[in-house]
Amino acid sequence: MNGGSIHLIKLFGIPIRIHVSWLIIFVLVTWTLAAGYFPSQYPHWAPLLYWVVGLITSFCFFASVLIHEIAHSVVAVSRGMKVRDIILFVFGGVSELGEEPGSAATEFLMAVVGPATSFLLSLLAAGLWLLTQHVNEPIGAIFYYLALINVMLAIFNMIPGFPLDGGRIFRSILWGITGDLDKATRWAVGLGIAIAWGLIGLGIVMLLFGQINGLWFALIGWFLKNAAQSTFDRTRLKRMLQGVPVHQVMNAGCAIVAPETSIGTVIQDLILARGIRCVPVAQGDQLLGLITVHNARAVPQEQWNSVQVRDVMVPASAVKAIGPDNDLWTAMEEMTEEGVNQLPVIQNGRLLGMVGRDALMGYLRMRAELGV
Ligand SMILES: [Zn+2]
What we know:
Layout: E1 5-11, E2 14-19, H1 20-41, H2 47-78, E3 83-89, E4 92-97, H3 104-132, H4 137-157, H5 165-178, H6 181-208, H7 214-241, H8 263-274, E5 278-283, E6 286-292, H9 293-297, H10 309-312, E7 314-315, H11 328-338, E8 342-347, E9 350-356, H12 357-370
Parallel strand pairs: 2-3
Antiparallel strand pairs: 1-2, 3-4, 5-6, 6-7, 8-9
Helix pairs in contact: 1-2, 2-3, 2-4, 3-4, 3-5, 5-6, 6-7
The chain binds zinc ion.
The site of zinc ion (ZN) has 5 residues, from helix 2.
């Protein structure tokens, strides 16, 4: 489990994860197919057959979404980009990119290949439906449904609201024309939020007129609005942190301890007394390692005076550091990537200070207060 998602498999070196919401949707889709769709289309089947066909169809639907996402990732990797992982969500999937696409052309290709793949899958399923419909009705029914659902996946993902594929295509075109990624992102996200509200409104109107399908429109709209909003927040955060050098907000006067200091001294004088969660261990200005609350907790209290920090610290070789001239956005991304709250600031092997999430937040709060 990680952020509400479960690791499934690894393909082309990319971890594939499913969001817990997918399990709920899987049950829901299977149930809708077995209890609603198939009985209404094929009333003469045996009751058990509806569930078998429903389950198989649900699995194939799941696989279709996965193939769509893999298509994105294959293009991303072939264009030299890093794909952190693929997460399958309620309404499709999200490929988590470790970075923004390097060019408008790369983003365009990456985005367009997803719906194109879904269209091809739909055509393939339609062909197989034509071949099988008179040979075996249940198998034909599965292919018919897959042809339908894949074309719907393609159309849904072509909605031009960021972060859907259509929104990415829209952004890449704007980006290509204006040459300004930030402006293109703002426009694409704005359109995404407008479309999301449109879908929510449409869903509510449909519900008011007794159309239960309106619930789906409202849900999809809600999902899109949240996704667009979080992209917007991230873009704004990036704009505020980009270009501000780390040395401007780092804590240069941070507490440094010598390697032979006892862990008890660090716990009592620094962690407990001053609330410092991460203490650099250094000899002169050479960083040897870091002591975190996590390391300190691993030492039983009766050994606090006998254990030295050098025995339990995270060695410098395993510590991710940042340079004083890197910007705050880079620091933020590094911390997120490493799952840490602080980074030592190092130049030519010399420890200059520490920079933490609290310092970044303090900087953002101060800017908000000044209204700049
Ligand atoms: Zn896609």
